[in-house]
Amino acid sequence: MNYPNKINREYHKTISYANRGMDLENIINDTNEYLLSKDIALIYKKPTPIGVVKVNYENNKQIIEKAYFASPSTLDYNGLYKGKYIEFDAKNTESKTSFPLSNVHEHQIKHIRNVIKHDGIVFLIIRINGICYLLNGPDFISFIDNNTRKSIPYDYIKEFGYELEYNYTKGLNYLKYVDIIGGYKNEEN
Amino acid sequence: MNYPNKINREYHKTISYANRGMDLENIINDTNEYLLSKDIALIYKKPTPIGVVKVNYENNKQIIEKAYFASPSTLDYNGLYKGKYIEFDAKNTESKTSFPLSNVHEHQIKHIRNVIKHDGIVFLIIRINGICYLLNGPDFISFIDNNTRKSIPYDYIKEFGYELEYNYTKGLNYLKYVDIIGGYKNEEN
User: Fold this and answer.
1) Which residues from chain B sit within 8 angstroms of residue A78, using beta carbons?
2) Is A54 an 8 Å CB contact of chain B?
3) Which of A54, B3, B6, B19 is 20 to 30 A distant from A73 in Cα terms?
């Protein structure tokens, strides 16, 4: 084969999940189920907050007859890995050149700042151009604090983010980079 | 005053929250709001999981027209305190002599074991006879593993649990005992 390695790798990654249109949320959920089943980490998706308006009873069971989806003030996933608190959100963008900040609510940005302040591990998993990146919370906040742009350029994500790999059995290898941003390597040495 | 200190303290505690019938969930929520506002800890109640059956659109907004409450497989509250993962549930019991284990689902017990295994801090806040106790996860699991009883006697809770105090402004002082069970004192020394 004459293709350079880089192209080959991109190609394999692309067919492995991105272009097959697998839903990012499903990929993350499958990954977390794998991590739970192998006793590696406990990461759960928080239920979507719902405002219940009307409840009735059917055969002694509560049935919700009117409710609406509320917007979350935290991120979608949180849990426990090696004793530490982890929280993240997974965002897909159709744009090929940047990640629009409108994808993250104002109170979620405030929450990310809070998690950093309290020594938690917080990040975004951003899928752009069919590739998933882990963007560490401090790098995300740093962009917001130092730019007036309403979207994060792809180049920034490539420079500061960690490109994730997907495996059919193990899912997305995001914990590999949590080990790095959480400083576990330093602790072990 | 001729009352011994102990009785006086109990009396104050009792009128302060228990006998006024304040809902335990509200007390915990107020406490967590206080902790958030003072930048002490980030603890949130997870939304109740809901199975959505039917959704319709009204004025371009999604309205849930049929749904049901699902039972949670984790505990109600989790969050971040001093970099560590914390998870707990608050349980009220009407029984004066014991805490019925039927209050905790089988998959929640499994989850508590998991959190312990992964070095998280996990506990129950149990209100019995109008007094709130923090019962550390390992003490809760130890009872289950070493007894065939379907309820935890009040005496066990008094012996192994930490009696909590309530303050109108600060709420329940459960973090005081998280500092102890989480071993922060040792780290600081």
Assistant:
1) 78
2) no
3) A54
pTM of the model: 0.84
Q: Measured between CA atoms, how close is A68 to chain B, in angstroms?
A: 5
Average pLDDT along chain B, 189 residues, taken 10 residues at a time: 39 43 88 96 91 87 88 92 95 94 94 96 96 97 96 97 94 95 59
From A162's Cα to the closest Cα of chain B, the distance in A is: 23
In CATH, what number is assigned to the domain containing residue A156?
3.40.1350.10
Number of domains in chain A: 1
- Which residues of chain A, if any, have pLDDT below 70? 1-21, 184-189
DSSP string, chain A: --S-HHHHHHHHHIIIIITTT--HHHHHHHHHHHHHHTTS-EEEEPPPPEEEEEEEEETTEEEEEEEEEPPPSS-SEEEEETTEEEEEEEEE---SSEEEGGGS-HHHHHHHHHHHHTT-EEEEEEEETTEEEEEEHHHHHHHHHH---SEEEHHHHHHHSEE--EETTTEE-HHHHHHHHTTHHHHH-
**Which pLDDT value is given to residue B153?**
97
* Residue of B48, B106, B112, B55 lying closest to B86 (CA atoms): B112
How far, in Å, CA of A163 to CA of A172, rounded? Answer: 10
**CB proximity B56 to A under 8 Å:** no
Residue in B48, B50, B117 to test binding to A, most A beta-carbons within 10 Å: B50
Contacts of B111 (CB under 8 A, 6+ apart): A42, B73, B74, B75
Report the gap between the CA of A14 and the closest CA in chain B (Å).
33
Residue B13: give the domain boundaries.
5-188
Closest A-chain CA to B84: A84
